[in-house]
Amino acid sequence: MTSSAAATSTDATAPAKGHYVILDGLRGVAALMVVVFHLFEAYSGGSPHKQIINHGYLAVDFFFLLSGFVVAYAYDDRWGGMTQWQFYKRRLVRLQPMIIVGGLIGAALLGLQHWSLFPKLEAVTVWQVIGVMLLGALMIPMTPSAEIRGWGEIYPLNGPQWSLFYEYVANILYAVGLRKLPIRWLGALVAVSALALVGLLVLGPRGDVIGGWALNASGVHIGLTRVMFPFFAGVLLMRLGKRIKVRHGFAVCSVLLIAALSLPRFGGPERLWVNGLYEAACVILLFPLIVAIGAGEKDVDGPSLRIARFFGDLSYPLYITHYPLIYIYTGWVVDKKIPAAQGALVGAGVFVAAVAIAWACLKLYDEPARRWLAGKLLRRA
After folding, report:
1. Which one of 53, 160, 238, 376 has the lowest number of neighbouring Cβ atoms within 10 Å?
2. Which is nearest to 265 in space by CA: 288, 282, 253?
3. Which parts pass through the membrane (predicted)?
4. pLDDT of residue 9 exceeding 60
5. What is the structure's pLDDT at 275?
6. 325: burial class by Cβ within 10 Å (0-12, 13-18, 19+)?
């Protein structure tokens, strides 16, 4: 299971500034790739070496980079008249409504997830589900022994929520003091974080960054390592002002991103470090390059503008609501031994359903909820 943090659009609760439409669109492209990755994962047999869209989990690290860039862009110059609590309220308004509805969808669909992959679900009571849903809504993680699915997830109703936990961690670190670092010291922090990431990838036991959703030493180590470099590299990239202008920037960036997330695993089980080097190159070199190109032009027009805006609006709701459907689909494929052709047909339907649910949540719930909360909580911010 792989998951990720897609709430990185230019914050509607932040002060009005020019809009990086291409970056919003890239966030949507990455979110769509996450869904495709999770659908193919049902046929991987639990092995990353057999996955088809093999590096889709790196979308999480791309989201973290985008988040750092956008948070710095929206808030770096606001701290003279904004308190930490006002910053936290803005981030809560942006992120929390969809976290709550993601948990509700996960709880509502739990009855359709009684497959052999989820050994604990048979003994789960309604009160346990309600308790887990409330804990998830409050962003309180669960230990592997206490969670109800058997996968060790800190948010067992909606696995991808783990990355929002680390999104909040990074936002808190930014607000409590790291935002004050001058560029030189911020660069040093980013460099040290990059070394930690390379160490995890090249010297670690897996040769990839998969993980972060378990509340144990390994899970916390992976989660913190995954968020620290890209988030604060995004902050640094915004402050340095490095932008690259290319023609058809959205298309160019989309192709680069899709290719990076789709390439097969490198090196095989015998040379895990080879794949680790590839992932390090993606996160440390390629993803900042893509963001620098995407930020090279704030305004696009024509079809690119409409596509980018649609993808950007859809991305966070899609990311945070699709996985309950994936639980059902994966359990069905594995337990029923569904052939690939039949699975692809049903998987296409799941993809369409995930997009439809996300769009409905965005328009009927998320946007109205954020407007209401902004009016109640942010009037004096």
Report:
1. 376
2. 282
3. 20-40, 52-75, 95-112, 124-142, 162-178, 185-204, 210-237, 249-266, 272-295, 316-334, 340-362
4. no
5. 96
6. buried
Least confident range of 5-9, 266-270, 287-291? 5-9
Condensed to tens digits (0 to 9), the pLDDT of residues 27-83 reads 999 999 999 999 999 999 878 888 888 999 999 999 999 999 999 999 998 888 899
Q: Is 12 exposed, middle or buried (0-12, 13-18, 19+ CB in 10 A)?
A: middle
Residue 228 corresponds to which tokens in the numbers above? 């620290």
Q: How far apart are CA 236 and CA 310, in angstroms?
A: 28
Look at the block and give the residue holding tokens 């959205």: 250
CA 67, distance to chain mean position in Å, is: 10
CB 48, CB 2: distance < 8 Å: no
Q: In angstroms, rounded to a whole number, what is the distance separating the alpha carbons of residues 342 and 335?
A: 14
Among 9-18, 44-53, 143-152, top mean pLDDT goes to 143-152
Q: How many CB atoms lie within 10 A of CB 182?
A: 9
Report DSSP letters for 217-254, one per residue. Answer: HHHHHHHHHHHHHHHHHHHHHHHHT-----TTHHHHHH
Cα separation, 381 vs 368, whole angstroms: 19
CA-based radius of gyration for the chain: 20
Q: Is 16 left (phi over 0), alpha (psi -120 to 50) or beta?
A: beta
Least Cα distance to 234 among 196, 290, 311, 169 occurs for 290
The owner of tokens 């862009």 is 73
Query: What tens digit of pLDDT does each residue of 238-265 get?
Result: 999 989 998 888 999 999 999 999 999 9
**Nearest to residue 362, comparing CAs of 6, 33, 22, 64?**
6
Question: Burial, 85: exposed, middle or buried (Cβ in 10 Å; 0-12, 13-18, 19+)?
Answer: exposed
The percentage of residues in the chain with a pLDDT greater than 70, rounded to a whole number, is 93
